[in-house]
């Protein structure tokens, strides 16, 4: 995830020349000006939050809940496969130690937070 955001930030910083991004002495609009404004939160995150809220407020019939559970498993598998397919393995291996430390640190924090929450909530 860190590689994605750092690559995205670098791409935004480096100006490219082309029909959508003219040289500084031309007066044509840039690609940023022609692009529509994007939302800060992706649509699928909003949908996930809406369905979580809906599932918390109303009780779904058992047959709907069972089908929704099956569908959510397939959608999660598809999402994880898509993440894996978008991985730039060369960039990942180039980062090496840095990415391994980040992943290890994230793992330790998640396990520690999970253990703390279990200890606090299960009494």
TrEMBL record:
<feature type="transmembrane region" description="Helical">
    <location>
        <begin position="99"/>
        <end position="122"/>
    </location>
</feature>
<protein>
    <submittedName>
        <fullName>Sulfate exporter family transporter</fullName>
    </submittedName>
</protein>
<feature type="transmembrane region" description="Helical">
    <location>
        <begin position="39"/>
        <end position="58"/>
    </location>
</feature>
<comment type="similarity">
    <text>Belongs to the UPF0324 family.</text>
</comment>
<keyword id="KW-1003">Cell membrane</keyword>
<keyword id="KW-0472">Membrane</keyword>
<dbReference type="Pfam" id="PF03601">
    <property type="entry name" value="Cons_hypoth698"/>
</dbReference>
<keyword id="KW-1133">Transmembrane helix</keyword>
<keyword id="KW-0812">Transmembrane</keyword>
<dbReference type="InterPro" id="IPR018383">
    <property type="entry name" value="UPF0324_pro"/>
</dbReference>
